[in-house]
Amino acid sequence: MSDPGAVKAAARKAAFARRKAAFAARPPGAAGRLSEVLAGYRGVPLAGYMPIRTEIDPLPAMAEAAAHGPVGVPVIAGAGLALDFSRWEPDGPLRAGPFGAMVPEQDRFFEPEILIVPLVAFDARGGRLGYGGGFYDRTLERLRARRPTLAIGFAFDAQEADALPLEAMDQPLDMVVTESRVLSFPG
């Protein structure tokens, strides 16, 4: 049997290549589709992310949602820990955070009930392959232990994989939004 870490590393490498090509092509429609989904949750505290490298950009949808309720971005407290979320405002002052993502200059922490989750790959069952640090898995596990928490993967269509090498600790997505569709995964 193959080493799970090696299998995940190979899956990540292939997925990064697909995401890079999709990012270069910049297919339209994803931010608008994400805004449409979020419109059904107006005022519910949510967190997105500040895009890095070839990640799909959720900022237009986050800015629209910020007019109706609190929106945050992840702040990495340290390796092996769950993420914290600091209140983000469009055009608010930012500072450099770990791994090159920008974070609000002043931390104003809160707990979101919806997470817009970046990813490397997803599958048709709501599986998600991230960067390998386990930050979102730990965070979703913590938040879901306290209250229902909706995890929305945001990705290019090209990031879909037939099957992902998932483990028991990997937290499932409730939904994936791409430039062409919205996939829902009943729990």
TrEMBL record:
Catalytic activity, as annotated: (6S)-5-formyl-5,6,7,8-tetrahydrofolate + ATP = (6R)-5,10-methenyltetrahydrofolate + ADP + phosphate
Matching InterPro entries: FTHF_cligase (IPR002698), FTHF_cligase-like_sf (IPR024185), NagB/RpiA_transferase-like (IPR037171)
Cofactor(s) it depends on: Mg(2+)
GO terms, biological process: folic acid-containing compound biosynthetic process; tetrahydrofolate interconversion
Keywords from the UniProt entry: ATP-binding, Ligase, Magnesium, Metal-binding, Nucleotide-binding
Single GO MF descriptor: ATP binding
Superkingdom field: Bacteria
Keyword Magnesium: yes
Enzyme class: ligase
Record Pfam families: 5-FTHF_cyc-lig
The enzyme's E.C. designation: 6.3.3.2
Family that this chain belongs to: Belongs to the 5-formyltetrahydrofolate cyclo-ligase family.
The protein, known as: 5-formyltetrahydrofolate cyclo-ligase
